[in-house]
Amino acid sequence: MTENRLLPPRSWLPNAVTAANITAGFLAMESAASGRFEIAVYLLMLAVLLDSADGRLARLLNATSAFGQQLDSLSDVISFGVAPAFLVYHACLEPLGPLGLVVSLTYLFAGVYRLARFNVLADEHSKASRTMGVPIPIGAGYLMAAALMRDAMSPAASALVVLAMAMLMISRWRLPDLKGKNLVSTMLLIGLFNYVGVLIAPNWYTVGWWNVWNALIVVVARRSDRAADSVDSAGELGDAESTA
Fold first, then answer.
1. Burial class of residue 182 in the structure, from the number of CB atoms within 10 Å of its CB (0-12 exposed, 13-18 middle, 19+ buried)
2. What is the pLDDT of residues 138-169, one digit of tens each?
3. The pLDDT of residue 125 is above 50
4. 63-77, 121-135, 210-224 — which is least confidently predicted?
């Protein structure tokens, strides 16, 4: 395979966005190492936005490929695996000593496992209707919130949040489709604004409301998904009866 076939010109823009994602993750680690935890969180939020943009650009430009999928996954390891684990350790878990390191590594290993499983099951050209386990950007979002709430949470409580995200990422819990133009996508947009509220004013009110809204999104999405499954089943039954 030639380099031109591997990297067609139309793929350069989405790949550049992915590179910017990696850069944001690296700079977030540098900021966390310097004790600038808020700056690290903002950089990781930028990485989340870039991660959302590169896939959309690739599909818009008809530039999806196995190479782009792997590059995106590697960027996710850095920006939503290594960087959040590094951030939450220095911001919250360092007082726990070696246990804090173990908790941070547990999250990192879970994130890598989740991404590897996704790569094996996913089609680089389309989005699956369901995803197994909590996506790693969501796990990173909770670690970022823990870093912002570090003065209001004990290291032990932060460790429980990190471990909970690790377990949810590697779980076999199948989340319904959260894409498309529907009620759920509107709720997701509102949820993004809720998270911006957490970034601007991290306190138990904004964090609590963000979590309540996330729970509502899952409930609505699962009900919509079950309704769609019922319609599909009814259609298949009708087809079978007409054939008989």
1. middle
2. 999 999 999 999 999 999 999 999 999 999 99
3. no
4. 121-135
How would DSSP label each residue in the chain?
A: --HHHHS-GGGHHHHHHHHHHHHHHHHHHHHHHTT-HHHHHHHHHHHHHHHHHHHHHHHHTT---HHHHHHHHHHHIIIIIIHHHHHHIIIIIGGGTHHHHHHHHHHHHHHHHHHHHHHHH--TTS--S-EES--HHHHHHHHHHHHHTTTTS-HHHHHHHHHHHHHHHHS--EEPP--SSSHHHHHHHHHHHHHHHHHHS-SHHHHHHHHHHHHHHHHHHHHHHHHHHHHHHHHHHHHHHHH-
The length of the chain is 244
Across the chain, mean pLDDT equals 84
- The residue ranking higher by pLDDT, 227 or 148, is 148
CA–CA dist 79, 19 (Å, integer): 11
Choice between 166 and 67, residue whose per-residue pLDDT is larger? 166
